[in-house]
Design goal:
This protein has about 475 residues and is α/β, with parallel strands linked by helices. It is built from 13 helices and 13 strands. Strand 3 and strand 4 form a beta hairpin. It comes from Cytospora schulzeri.
Length: about 475
């Protein structure tokens, strides 16, 4: 058997092939445990499962086994981390940026704590670290960054390969609701993010550090958004320890930090959304709006340069977001300027000679289920978070919500005006083609910041993005 086939086999060893069921007209399968996703179609083609197991694997030559282990590891991951500013005494603060780690690099001294939801060993986030000595050997070599990860039950390590891993940083203490327009920036929270980025770099033998950073839009606003009462940037080098300021400026100027993903919510947690009243809004069920990945704190994904699903441009004609993404991009730009980084405008003469290794993305994804469904005491009674059962339940609620909203809008329209199931932007045949593709996906869209021009509806941050073909982070679920 050829090596590539063995690699494909063992890449998904012990996985089961999910049967693709015929979906009902309302996008819900008869068996609630099975939901038809574009993710299934994509990953069956790129990572096919030949057998459920391969008992002869231990008999393969060691070099071949190591190669297969490595192929298993060489996948993009998004790792969700909670970060929280720790209370520190004056004595502890005096020790910041004075200690060195085993690599001889200065560390921040931890002005923060980290958390990963899940069980005690979740910080490793790779099964190969626990499979065998051989698998652990190749995994430890692959995950060259081993960041100390203090927990209540003792210190563990966070294993990271910056070339493949995207660290999704969210504050454990940020406001749960959307801050008001004039919500002030939080310099301490921003300093904590700088400390974290410095420490990841300090524990990297190659002096790389975080290459792909994802920030929740509320966290980005909370830490970096400029105040409307001052022209001063959200925080400046003088707000930081001198070593931290120098380190952060170097991270921004160099090609170490290659991409920042600003994760942003759609205005609604339902793909079929009808704001009312809203003159000029066309009733539409946006099948290709990507849904947030839920469940495990780490998820493997494929990075698609363009979203290949049919009908994407149709759904992009009305994109309403919880925030104006232009202000978020402007905040990051002002932050860079405060640390001496000035990037030319795309398409300008100087941009041809500038550093093209960095990208700032606006990344909409649909957060589900609605907040009002996550009631205290009910979580344990429902299906596991991120499971197909939970997703099927949400899709069923989407359908009910879409039906109710259409009926409600039609009750105010002139008699005889009907909003069909497929909405008013696309015809029934196109809608059905998209459904059968399928178009539902667990993932995140990637838009360059300059894709967002003037909004078509300012109050609901609505943009026409139909001229843009976004990228897609598609999760293996």
């Amino acid at each position: 058997m050829e090596t590539p086939k063995l690699a494909q086999l063992y890449r998904r060893n012990n996985a089961t092939i999910r049967n693709v069921a015929t979906m009902e007209h309302k996008t819900i399968v008869d068996d609630d445990t099975l939901v038809k996703l574009y993710n299934d179609v994509h990953f069956r083609k790129s990572h096919p499962v030949i057998y459920d197991s391969f008992a002869l694997f231990p008999l393969l030559p060691r070099e071949l086994r190591l190669h297969i282990w490595l192929l298993f590891l060489q996948r993009h991951r998004m790792i969700e981390l909670g970060i929280h500013a720790a209370d520190a005494t004056d004595e502890q603060q005096s020790c910041y940026y004075t200690d060195r780690n085993r690599l001889g690099n200065t560390v921040s001294g931890r002005n923060y704590t980290l958390s990963i939801k899940g069980r005690g060993y979740a910080a490793s986030l790779s099964p190969l670290l626990r499979v065998s000595k051989e698998a652990r050997y190749i995994a430890l070599d692959f995950y060259r960054i081993q960041l100390p990860f203090p927990r209540n039950n003792g210190e563990q390590l966070l294993f990271v390969n910056p070339d493949y891993d995207c660290l999704y940083v969210r504050s454990d203490s940020q406001p749960s609701s959307t801050p008001p327009v004039a919500f002030p920036p939080e310099p301490r929270a921003a300093a904590v993010l700088v400390d974290f980025l410095h420490d990841v770099r300090a524990f990297d033998p190659k002096d790389q550090g975080v290459a792909h950073l994802a920030l929740f839009a509320h966290y980005l606003h909370w830490t970096l958004q400029e105040s409307h009462t001052s022209t001063r940037p959200p925080f400046v080098p003088d707000d930081l320890n001198p070593t931290a300021a120098t380190s952060f400026a170097d991270i921004l100027r160099s090609s170490r930090l290659r991409s920042v993903f600003c994760i942003l919510k759609f205005m609604s947690c339902m793909r079929g959304w009808n704001p009312f009243p809203s003159r000029g809004w066309r009733s539409h069920f946006a099948q290709t709006f990507p849904l947030q990945r839920r469940g495990s704190p780490a998820g493997a994904f494929d990075w698609l340069e363009t979203d290949p699903r049919p009908g994407v441009q149709l759904d992009l004609s009305q994109v309403s977001l919880t925030r104006d993404p232009r202000s978020l991009a402007r905040s990051w730009e002002n932050l860079e300027k405060a640390f001496g980084v000035i990037r030319p405008e795309p398409g300008s003469e100087t941009s041809a000679n500038s550093n093209k290794d960095f990208s700032f993305y606006i990344c909409p994804t649909l957060f589900w289920p609605p907040d009002d469904q996550q009631l205290p005491g009910e979580e344990a009674q429902g299906p596991p978070e991120g499971s197909r059962e939970e997703l099927a339940g949400h899709l069923r609620q989407e359908v009910d919500h879409w039906d109710r909203k259409r009926q409600y809008i039609m009750s105010f329209d002139p008699p005889g005006i009907v909003i069909p199931w497929h909405g008013t932007i696309i015809d029934a045949e196109t809608f059905e083609t998209m459904r059968r593709a399928p178009s539902t996906a667990i993932g995140i869209w990637l838009f360059p910041a300059n894709a967002f021009k003037e909004p078509t509806k300012v109050p609901i941050n609505c943009f026409d993005l139909s001229a843009v073909r976004p990228g897609l982070l598609l999760f293996d679920v």
